[in-house]
Amino acid sequence: MTENSTVVGSKIRSIRETKNISIEEMTERTGLSADQITSIENDQFLPSLGPLIKIARALGVRLGTFLDDNDELGPVVCRAEERDSSLSFSNDASEARKNMVYHSLAKKKMGRHMEPFIIDIQPSEEKDFKLSAHEGEEFIYVMSGEVEIAYGKTHYTLREGDSIFYDSIVNHHVHGATGKGAQILAVVYIPF
């Protein structure tokens, strides 16, 4: 786990406690179990974006609040060397818990509804992925490697230079092609 990935759980717990929201209320608002929420808050479980979006909604904050948000007004420039700080999330693979490393490209932009990331996808032989869904839209552009996307009952293989734009309310999963790594540009739009 990277140093910054441990910040997510503590931020969630801090916001929840500040708003006097119990774990039980969180389970009702998110549909997640108390054990899942506790594991996320204690950084024992690396959540995918779907559960994080549900938690953000339940707490009345934007997803960016967990991703090192700050009060920068106007445009935000993200220099290449600033991408080194990263967050690791699970992609809900049953075995691999840390095969996607997210580099936020807008962590200083206040009031955003889009979350742009460069995502390094580590090679994995895993084939049993759990699909997830959340409100919004996603755009993915493959910078290098090969990516497989399960979208509903359809599977897409994307190679360098390919892109896909989809409604994320449909069950989906993004992962490297079997045994292959990749790097993608992903933009997630989450209505608030």
Mean pLDDT, rounded to whole units?
A: 82
Give me the Rg, rounded: 16 Å
* Strand content bin: 25-35%
How many β-strand stretches?
Answer: 8
How many angstroms separate the termini?
Answer: 29 Å
The amount of helix comes to 10-25%
Low-confidence stretches: 1-6, 90-97
Structural class: alpha+beta
H/E element order: HHHHEEEEEEEE
Shape summary: globular
Sheet of most strands: 8 strands, antiparallel
DSSP helix count? 4
Name some characteristics of this structure:
single chain, 192 residues, alpha+beta, eight-stranded antiparallel sheet, 4 helices, 21% helix
What's the SSE blueprint?
Layout: H1 5-18, H2 23-30, H3 34-41, H4 49-59, E1 87-89, E2 100-104, E3 114-121, E4 137-151, E5 154-159, E6 163-167, E7 172-176, E8 182-189
Describe this structure in words.
The chain is α+β, with helices and mostly antiparallel strands and 192 residues long. The chain is built from 4 helices and 8 strands, in the order H-H-H-H-E-E-E-E-E-E-E-E. Strands 1, 2, 3, 4, 5, 6, 7 and 8 form an 8-stranded antiparallel β-sheet that branches. Residues 1-6 and 90-97 have low confidence and may be disordered. It is globular and about 45 Å long. The two termini are 29 Å apart.
Task: Summarize it.
This protein is an alpha+beta fold. It has helices spanning 5-18, 23-30, 34-41, 49-59, and strands spanning 87-89, 100-104, 114-121, 137-151, 154-159, 163-167, 172-176, 182-189.
